[in-house]
Write a structure and sequence with these properties.
Blueprint lengths: L1 E3 L15 E3 L7 H14 L12 H8 L3 H13 L3 E4 L3 E4 L4 E4 L5 H7 L4 E12 L2 H7 L6 E11 L2 E11 L6 H6 L2 H7 L6 E10 L2 H7 L6 E10 L5 E9 L4 E4 L6
Parallel strand pairs: 5-12
Antiparallel strand pairs: 1-2, 3-4, 6-7, 7-8, 8-11, 9-10, 10-11
Length: 258
Amino acid sequence: MSRNVMPMSDSPFVPVEVPIEIDKSSPIPLYLQLAQSIQGAIDRGELAPGDRIENEVSLSRRLGVARPTVRQGIQELVDKGMLVRKRGVGTQVVESHVNRPMALTSLYDDLRESGKNPTTDVLEYRIAPADRQTASRLLLEEGAHVLELTRLRRIDGRPLALMRNVLPVEYAPSHAELSTTGLYDALREKGAKTAVAHERIGAVAATAEEAEVLGEEDGAPLLFMERKSFMDNGHALEYGYHLYRPSLYAFEVTLVNR
């Protein structure tokens, strides 16, 4: 194994020489080892937004690997939205971007596990009779009482997601609980656990109200995630419609050939 460590630079105009580990005997492809090392430096705060990393020629020479390998490793992080190539400037770290795995988890749990600092503003907390559409989604009688919930999720103080949820009132967490923890955490405390969910993901233009809350331009593209989740007894637990800022957020999935 070779370990290449170079001093860090405090100047935004000088490329930052990232500590990178390359193990040529490992079954992990070299480009992926390179990408993982740079991503680790970003996650640990050793590389900050705006920092410029070494160019492909420098990295290739320093690490003793082919230039196409370096290019592929950098492209891996460009595709993830963590680096950006700029003509005349080089390759730079972009603003922190949340890459969320496609799994039956909550946004709060995913952010916390990835080292982010999530906070929640509860914008609406209302118990009301379910209209026909809500009752159909939650498999309830029309007029049954539900909790209508709107929250703003932030990371490090920045708006990330606007989340609307409805759920049967018997599972409703308190306003205080939802201000300090995630919805799924609060539901688990009540013995209500999601067993299966149907999810739909797409893009939508922000309304004026949504844009103002999320700090985007009116009509800006947003990612949406619509989810209906069920407990193992078949009862519907919650319906959610969440909007995410694409500049800070992406869904990530691993595909396996069958």
